[in-house]
Each structure stands twice: as structure tokens, then as C-alpha cells.
């Protein structure tokens, strides 16, 4: 794998303050950064993109992150995508993960959260984790869940809020929260995006 100082991050955000602060965060962690102020600017350079992770804001004027992600796939660019999302955009971020994004992180995020997501992206880039291995590992981990916990995870992986999952399952929102906490504990994850990564890996063909 390339050493940290060769690790490139393509940072796409229309907010110049975010590009500055996140760019600084990345550079002080030893990453190289190419910043773009829109998805269109990234796509214009698509054929020349050097290997790296794409850190992509989900809400941007012109083309949003989901549209950019789809356009990259249509151009056959398989670089790992990590979605940056504002609070309340979780349903959109879930869509992005279903479409192949490695992870999503909610702004404002800690440096550690960002670096962990990028680590996963770079692991994928180096092909160390084959899809089959990820699927096998995910299947094993999901076996630890009760049927009800699986139902809650299924609701979360469809981007549904706790209240909707509660209504669909005929239980209280509080009970959904308890199941959600239990399933995350059993899966050994600390964030919803990690739990979803396992759920989607298990669904991979």
C-alpha cells in the first residue's frame, strides 16, 4: 500500500470554508489534497483523476453528491467515495452507500472519524479486502442478531427513521432505539454507517 504521504484525497465541497478546514485536517494527517468546488469540476477532470479517495459533499448546487457518484460510475471511475453529510441527510447518505459509497460522515466531524473512513477507502483501493471476504465476514456478524434486530437493521438500511421503523414493526420508537443499540453492540460498531456497511456487504452478490 502507498505510504500516507502518497495518499491522495479528492475533496469536493462548494463551501470554501469546508474545503479549507477539511483540507488542512487532511494535510496535517499526511495526505495530499486536490480540492474541487463542485461535482462538475471533479467530473471535468475525471479522465485524469489520480488514484485516491473521493470525499464528496452530498448537498451541492448544480449536481448533488448522489448525481456526481452516479456520473463517476457511468464513466467507469471506481475510486472509493466517502460522503460528507449535514445533519438530517442520513436517508440520502444511505442511498449513497447503497450505490457503492464506502462510508458517510456527518458534519461537523472529528479528525479521527474522517481518517477512519479514509482508511477503509484506501483499504478498498488497495484491493486488500475482496468483496467475497467482506460478504462472508458480514454474514457471520449478522448471525449474532435476533430476528427483530435484523428487521430494525433492514429498516435502517432502507434509510427509514426510528419512528417509521417502529410503526412498521408495531413497536415503540424507544424499543427501536434499544434494538438499534443492541445490534450495534453485537456487530461491534460505533456508528450507523459502520452497521450499514455490514448490512450492504451481506447483500452483495
Structure description:
- The chain is an alpha/beta fold and 205 residues long.
- The chain has two domains: 4-125, 3-Layer(aba) Sandwich (Rossmann fold), CATH 3.40.50; 131-203, Winged helix-like DNA-binding domain superfamily/Winged helix DNA-binding domain (Arc Repressor Mutant, subunit A), CATH 1.10.10.10.
- The protein has ten helices and five strands.
- The chain has helices at 16-27, 39-44, 65-74, 90-98, 111-125, 131-142, 147-157, 162-169, 173-187, 192-203, and strands at residues 8-12, 32-36, 53-57, 81-85, 103-106.
- The chain has a five-stranded parallel β-sheet with strand order 2-1-3-4-5, with helices on both faces.
Describe this protein with a few key phrases.
single chain; 205 residues; Arc Repressor Mutant, subunit A; 2 domains
Q: Concise description?
A:
With 205 residues, the protein is α/β, with parallel strands linked by helices.
Strand order of the largest sheet: 2-1-3-4-5
Low-pLDDT segments, ≥5 res: 1-5
Order of helices and strands: EHEHEHEHEHHHHHH
Tally of DSSP β-strands: 5
Structural class: alpha/beta
CATH architecture of the largest domain: 3-Layer(aba) Sandwich
| CATH class call of the largest domain | Alpha Beta
Beta-sheet strand percentage? 5-15%
Which range best describes the helical content: under 10%, 10-25%, 25-40%, 40-55%, 55-70% or over 70%? 40-55%
3D shape = globular
Biggest sheet details: 5 strands, parallel
Number of helices, counting only DSSP H or I runs of 4 residues or more: 10
**Mean of residue pLDDT values:** 90
- End-to-end C-alpha gap: 27 Å
Oligomer: single chain
- CATH topology of the largest domain, by name, is Rossmann fold
What is Rg? Answer: 17 Å
Amino acid at each position: 500500500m502507498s505510504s500516507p504521504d502518497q495518499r491522495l484525497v479528492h475533496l469536493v465541497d462548494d463551501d470554501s470554508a469546508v474545503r479549507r478546514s477539511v483540507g488542512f485536517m487532511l494535510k496535517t494527517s499526511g495526505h495530499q489534497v486536490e480540492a474541487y468546488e463542485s461535482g462538475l469540476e471533479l467530473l471535468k477532470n475525471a479522465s485524469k483523476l489520480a488514484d485516491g479517495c473521493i470525499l464528496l459533499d452530498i448537498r451541492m448546487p448544480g449536481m448533488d453528491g448522489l448525481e456526481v457518484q452516479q456520473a463517476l460510475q457511468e464513466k467507469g471511475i471506481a475510486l472509493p467515495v466517502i460522503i460528507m453529510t449535514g445533519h438530517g441527510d442520513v436517508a440520502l447518505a444511505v442511498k449513497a452507500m447503497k450505490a457503492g459509497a464506502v462510508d458517510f460522515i456527518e458534519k461537523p466531524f472529528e479528525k479521527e472519524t474522517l481518517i477512519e473512513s479514509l482508511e477503509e477507502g484506501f483499504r478498498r483501493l488497495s484491493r486488500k479486502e475482496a468483496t467475497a471476504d467482506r460478504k462472508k465476514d458480514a454474514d457471520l456478524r449478522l448471525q449474532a442478531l435476533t430476528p427483530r434486530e435484523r428487521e430494525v437493521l433492514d429498516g435502517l438500511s432502507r434509510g427509514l427513521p426510528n419512528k417509521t421503523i417502529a410503526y412498521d414493526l408495531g413497536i415503540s420508537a424507544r424499543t427501536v432505539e434499544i434494538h438499534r443499540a443492541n445490534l450495534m453492540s453485537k456487530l461491534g460498531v460505533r456508528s450507523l454507517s459502520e452497521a450499514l456497511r455490514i448490512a450492504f456487504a451481506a447483500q452483495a452478490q
